[in-house]
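hey
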């Protein structure tokens, strides 16, 4: 779905923001991109979506070179959900907001109603269709933003720090929606995130540091390399610190990188003793 080669970009002449980055993302996969603030991860998301213009290298999306000639075609295949859902609202009701993109594409009203209902159901917002978006919780607002993007039938869905401004309940809601969309709709998902639980749900992780791709692999591969994580200013998850401490005491806590997984593994080990 995505093929990036030797990508380069800078906002000014003093510092290179993206420095010779190359990676591939398979169709139907779920990839998370992590890195400290200023590492370039959100810039990557904007470059993939065509919101910024690359200054070197190449980007292919779904077999098309990302350039001015193909930009409209590529954007029709991409949905992007940003950090602040309030910045994405257009309509006075949830229904109107989901309908906005469909109206711009002249979708007939009877067909539009069915699309709105279907995608509201995917994010569990059907009963809120006639509510004002501004009166919803943070997690509900983000679900509406996702429904509006899904209504356009994208093949690639990009989340740019979509849970960063949410409370713990809202974060959990959106992480579940992302995982469900990946499982049930064969969407290619790219998520820029700091959340270790979301990273654990993904298939593959790309880690950036000062505009360079410095680590990649499965969540377990990336987040068990404590030395490299500290070198690129990423915190080692508490669950891994706990697992390391348990290992020193002769307790095998498995391969999980989340606290939930660690607890389940320990409970299973205890039940087998």
């Amino acid at each position: 779905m995505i093929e990036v080669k030797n990508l380069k970009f800078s906002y000014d002449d003093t510092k290179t923001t993206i420095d010779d980055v190359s990676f591939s993302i398979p169709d139907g996969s779920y990839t998370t991109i992590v890195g400290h603030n200023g590492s370039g991860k959100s810039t990557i998301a904007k470059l993939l979506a065509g919101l910024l213009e690359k200054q070197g290298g190449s980007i292919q999306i779904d077999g098309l070179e990302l350039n001015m000639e193909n930009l409209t075609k590529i954007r029709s295949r991409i949905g992007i959900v940003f950090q602040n859902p309030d910045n994405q609202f257009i309509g006075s009701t949830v229904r109107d907001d989901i309908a906005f993109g469909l109206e711009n594409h002249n979708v007939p009203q009877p067909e539009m109603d069915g699309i709105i209902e279907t995608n509201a159901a995917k994010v569990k917002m059907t009963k809120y269709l006639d509510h004002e978006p501004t009166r919803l919780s943070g997690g509900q607002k983000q679900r509406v933003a996702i429904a509006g993007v899904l209504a356009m039938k994208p093949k690639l869905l990009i989340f740019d720090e979509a849970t960063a401004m949410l409370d713990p309940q809202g974060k959990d809601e959106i992480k579940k929606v992302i995982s469900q969309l990946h499982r049930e709709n064969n969407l290619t998902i790219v998520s820029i995130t700091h959340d270790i639980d979301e990273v654990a749900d993904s298939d593959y992780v790309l880690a950036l540091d000062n505009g360079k791709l410095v680590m990649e692999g499965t969540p377990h591969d990336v987040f068990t390399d404590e030395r490299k994580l500290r070198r690129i200013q990423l915190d080692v998850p508490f669950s891994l610190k706990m697992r390391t401490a348990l290992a020193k005491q002769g307790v095998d806590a498995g391969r999980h990188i989340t606290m939930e997984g660690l607890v389940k593994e320990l409970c299973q080990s205890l039940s087998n003793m």
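Residues 58 and 66 are 7 Å apart (CA to CA). The mean pLDDT is 86.
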